[in-house]
UniProtKB/TrEMBL annotation:
Main location: membrane
Similarity field: Belongs to the bacterial sugar transferase family.
Membrane-protein topology: Multi-pass membrane protein
Enzyme's top EC category: transferase
Transmembrane segments: 12-32, 38-55, 75-94, 106-125, 265-287
Sequence ranges assigned to domain Bacterial sugar transferase in this UniProt record: 260-444
Single Gene Ontology MF annotation: undecaprenyl-phosphate glucose phosphotransferase activity
Coiled coil (residue ranges): none
Assigned keywords, A-Z: Membrane, Transferase, Transmembrane, Transmembrane helix
EC number, UniProt record: 2.7.8.31
The protein's name: Undecaprenyl-phosphate glucose phosphotransferase
């Protein structure tokens, strides 16, 4: 197995686009005498309506390989529904004094403003990738079929897509070795792997899938009539060339990532200013009175994209040399009296809301492991690295299902990873809420492995 740290790209573009578009639709109301009676009601209405329509229309899901016609279609759909919602305001809220003509002019003004911003953003991103070589993804192609060669032409000719073609491997070459191929991908920081299905055997396809899963690489296929997997596959088009995407991670969608990050910031601020601001000093005093050492325990953990970060906790043990290697066990002599209480109630995890605020963690996600354990399990547990496709969490699906704390037997880590992968592939906002509620319930009830 090979382990690498893959570079991911910023998710600021979609939130910034949301902000500028909402700014346009709200500010332009003051350029015309619309005569709305309740400004707050009108602004709230059009803002919420715009967000809902955008979500249903996937208005902000514009990929680097998206064609202009797709953007035009999204603009048309977006504004057809926005027009209907805009004029519905008059009837819903009984606004007889509102000027229909001014409202129509406002609609046209917003359309021109958003249209201009949308295409300006699209053109600037293409120029950024093409001329300044920014937001680039390194790619390799496996296979020398006609479609594989066409794909390489797309990568090399369409610089605005932001793909840097590094190497082509032919499975028909006598010197082809799949392990050498994997080593090249790791050593050259390859982001995406494109496989020609017609040139790969089923066991080679399985090897590529396992390698990509365990090394946080994006794997895509050039399709033919071979039945690849009994999984849901997603078609994408690069120019006019169809590409199959094997795994769809919900949190890699910009809107979902934005929604989760917004919730994380709001929830962490609530906990920090509602609980930690008064509980923190009290616990600090109790911790220092019982044993010498720092109030906080700071440890390197493995997070999103296999990157290390400093994870914060209230110190629950006496200062010892085994803290970075050995998990807490039942009746662990290192745990202090106050430590037993805060571990049992999970209060020791509260400082991780600072990690959430700083962007290292999320409120919900796979629990971050010690660096030593990540290295160990990555080589022992199949698809272990898939959990690093999302940010680690203070709580997670595996934890509420009883797989928290000490790993006592092999089935513990296997089941934990099973739930982590399910979470990564099936994330939803309501799943996060359910996990948070269950975590609070478990904290009050007490858990068997909370020691």
């Amino acid at each position: 197995m090979f382990l690498s740290q893959q570079h991911r790209y910023s998710g600021f573009i979609t939130p910034l686009s949301y902000f500028t578009d909402l700014l346009v639709i709200n500010l332009f109301t003051y350029f015309l005498p619309i005569n709305f009676q309740n400004p707050w009601l009108f602004h709230s209405y059009i803002s919420i309506a715009w967000i809902i329509i955008s979500f249903k229309n996937e208005f902000y899901e514009v990929h680097r390989y998206s064609k202009v016609v797709i953007i035009l279609r999204k603009l048309f759909t977006q504004f057809v529904f926005f027009f209907l919602v805009l004029y519905a305001y008059i009837g819903f809220f009984k606004q007889p004094l509102m000027s229909r003509l001014a409202l129509g002019k406002y609609f046209l003004l917003v359309f021109v403003g958003v249209f201009a911003l949308k295409f300006l953003n699209y053109i600037l991103l293409m120029q950024y990738r093409s001329l300044w070589k920014g937001n680039i993804r390194n790619v390799v192609v496996i296979g020398k079929s006609k479609k594989a060669n066409q794909l390489i032409e797309v990568f090399e000719e369409r610089k605005e897509y932001g793909y840097k073609f590094k190497r082509q491997f032919s499975t028909r070459d006598q010197n082809f070795d799949i392990i050498t191929c994997f080593r090249y991908i790791v050593n050259n920081n390859i982001d995406e792997i494109y496989c020609s299905v017609s040139e790969l055997k089923n066991d080679e396809i399985a090897s590529f899938v396992n390698f990509a899963d365990n090394n946080l690489k994006t794997l895509k296929f050039l399709p033919d009539n071979k039945n690849i997997f009994a999984k849901k596959l997603k078609f994408e088009y690069y120019d006019y060339l169809p590409i199959l995407s094997l795994r769809d991670i919900p949190l890699h969608t910009s809107l979902n990532a934005f929604l989760k990050r917004t919730f994380d910031i709001g929830f962490s601020l609530f906990v920090i200013f509602g609980i930690l601001i008064w509980l923190g000093p009290l616990l600090a005093l109790l911790i220092r009175l019982e044993s010498k050492g720092p109030v906080f325990f700071i440890q390197k953990r493995t997070g999103f994209d296999n990157k290390e970060f400093q994870c914060f906790k209230f110190r629950s043990m006496t200062v010892n040399e085994d803290s970075d290697d050995k998990q807490a066990a039942k009746n662990d002599m290192r745990v202090t009296r106050i430590g037993k209480f805060i571990r049992k109630t999970s209060i020791d995890e509260l400082p991780q809301f600072y990690n959430v605020l700083f962007g290292n963690m999320s409120v919900v996600g796979p629990r971050p492991h010690m660096v030593k354990h990540t290295d160990e399990y990555a080589n022992r547990v199949d698809k272990y690295m898939l959990r690093h496709f999302v940010k680690p969490g203070i709580t997670g699906l595996a934890q509420i299902r009883g797989y928290r704390g000490e790993i006592e037997k092999e089935s513990d880590i296997q089941n934990r990873i099973k739930f982590d992968i399910f979470y990564v592939e099936n994330w939803s906002f309501f799943l996060d809420v359910k996990i948070i509620v269950q975590t609070v319930v478990n904290a009050f009830k007490g858990e068997e492995k909370a020691y």
